[in-house]
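Practice problem 4.
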């Protein structure tokens, strides 16, 4: 009888391990869009004809661990001493940043867009939902300051995973003037829990997934908490979130705003779902951004 119980427990352990490692692989994998596919999506949803007319410079930056990040610099046709680095969302690539790039160009910024780790033209790898990605962004900030002279204002702007990455980067106290975080998550556990509720899957699978992710990839889901980077933060942050976002709930931005120590704003865009605030109400979005940046400039 004891032998049978041991065999059953052993089989259950094997099943749990298979489920856990499969779940970890699925959760941390990146279904990549091609650059052409991402560009077509942008063209179908708003005008990007201005992009082809820009002077652009492509280059790569070696991150903290030697990983190469593909970057594109969008030159403002006007003399500018303001720069912004825009981080796109999960599965997307640099073209996902274009919906924000035009706003910054119109405000007199040079714009830097890039492919996040594991996305776009970069080498395939797994996603750590802001952990490694934040260190990549820090490297880009440092590279930008060394590459371009006369920078008076440098900020970062992110959408979804890019927003979480931008917030998580604050733990390193980067030399930047502002952060714009659009529909970012405060911790990946909450996003996945929300998804499990919708699919009626047992919540306990997340803990198993987290353990297996740590074993296989070296990072647990519990480490993927951008909100922890806001403790003691004094860099101004503009949080924007679609009021009807069903994927990353607006309360993520609300919690993060409550956590930061510095100046912050939170704007919920009515009727906007995930990552579509700038498309749902571009005029309001541009006005909120312009007024926030003016307040930052007035206090520099």
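Answer key:
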């Amino acid at each position: 009888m004891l032998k049978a119980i041991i065999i059953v427990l052993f089989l259950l352990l094997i099943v749990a391990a298979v489920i856990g490692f499969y779940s970890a692989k699925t959760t941390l994998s990146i279904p990549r869009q091609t650059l052409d596919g991402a560009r077509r999506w942008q063209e179908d949803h708003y005008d990007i004809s201005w992009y082809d007319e820009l002077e652009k410079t492509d280059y790569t930056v070696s991150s903290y661990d030697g990983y190469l990040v593909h970057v594109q610099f969008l030159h403002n046709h006007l003399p500018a001493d303001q720069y912004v680095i825009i981080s796109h969302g999960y599965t997307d690539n640099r073209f996902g940043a274009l919906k924000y790039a035009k706003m910054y160009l119109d405000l007199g910024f040079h714009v830097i867009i890039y492919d996040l780790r594991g996305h776009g033209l970069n080498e395939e790898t797994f996603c750590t939902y802001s952990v490694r990605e934040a260190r990549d962004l820090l490297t880009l900030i440092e590279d930008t300051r060394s590459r371009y002279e006369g920078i008076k204002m440098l900020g970062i702007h992110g959408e979804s995973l890019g927003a979480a990455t931008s917030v998580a980067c604050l733990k390193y106290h980067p030399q930047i003037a502002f952060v714009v975080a659009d529909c970012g998550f405060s911790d990946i556990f909450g996003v996945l829990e929300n998804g499990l509720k919708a699919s009626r899957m047992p919540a306990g699978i997340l803990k198993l997934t987290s353990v297996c992710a740590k074993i296989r990839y070296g990072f647990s889901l519990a480490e993927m908490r951008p909100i922890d980077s806001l403790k003691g933060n004094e860099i101004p942050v503009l949080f924007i979130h679609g009021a009807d976002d069903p994927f990353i709930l607006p309360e993520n931005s609300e919690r993060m705003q409550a956590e930061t120590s510095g100046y912050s704003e939170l704007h919920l865009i009515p009727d906007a779902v995930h990552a579509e605030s700038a498309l749902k109400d571009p005029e309001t979005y541009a006005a909120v951004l312009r007024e926030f940046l003016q307040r930052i400039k007035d206090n520099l």
